[in-house]
């Protein structure tokens, strides 16, 4: 072996050793990083607690649904929606520095949101003093409900509802209201009494004419603490992680088997009253619902008298795990501005997978089973509609002769218009 070749071999050996040492060092660094990650208090507990949540939800469903890959993925979506909704509150919620944050809706589709309602939630500290200000819009319904934290895996009850539209405004349409346990001495302005256990304020902004009604603006601030928000401590941030699993599991499991319970009670293609007074339902609102089960060639015809006076009415669909059917991209919800009674004064709504070519249609959007739910709010009567299953092809023959027809191209434009209007409503 020549000196030159020996040096070449030595250099190759040293290069190989250097590469090996570099790989070992890199591996050790990565292991150190992973060890550090594992040591972040609360994170792995969050991941571990949520890992089996979809399976726990599926276990509450009948075998034919539990073993359906489509339903499995929809249940996983429900778990993710619940996590996202809970995470927004954990990230942005603060009783000392509150804000009205999104809580449920089209994307955060948990708790069966109403298609016409924008929901926001502000966390508050019991006993605090708060001020709500903004500019009033033109919605018929803007409600703020006091609530207390859920306990023992039971839904949070509503404590008290306030009508924001009843608050006086100045010449520019601006309003201001103070919230506290006791009215401040000498205070003459608008005041709402906070109940001692109130920990949240749920805002509901309900619109029927999406194109023309204007949502209000709203802000909230605590007045009896400094306005600055210094860097949260490690303990505070850890606690936010640790409460996420229970919050997420509670929300995800709240109604996942509700449709199955209705089926077991015999309310298939039948309607019954729904009492939500104990789970935070809005005061003065009356609900009815029932399961629909339809083949593609079948339809439900829902018929009812319309009360002489009504602040608001609507009818929506959900899927089989009680997510509200996508109303942005389908004709799957109707309110008093969208569904008019027929010439004989009877409101008729048709539920089906195939478009029957009439104005008052609710599209099941690919779900052969789900729930029909209606609500009457501030109405002089609370009728339970009649319901009957028919062949979808026979629907035109069952309606008044002067019922308008809707072509496929017209339907496409109706859905595009409702989608534009909904996207332009403020969600945050």
* Gyration radius from CA atoms, angstroms: 28 Å
Mean pLDDT: 90
Q: Indicate how many domains the architecture comprises.
A: 3
The unreliable regions are 1-7, 10-25
Question: Per CATH, which architecture of the largest domain?
Answer: Sandwich
Work out the helix count.
Answer: 9
Remind me, CATH topology of the largest domain?
A: Jelly Rolls
- Total number of β-strand segments? 18
- Termini gap: 77 Å
Main sheet record: 5 strands, antiparallel
Strand order of the largest sheet: 1-2-8-4-5
Q: SS-based structural class?
A: alpha+beta
| Highest CATH level, the class of the largest domain | Mainly Beta
Helix content: 25-40%
- How does the overall form come out from the CA principal axes? globular
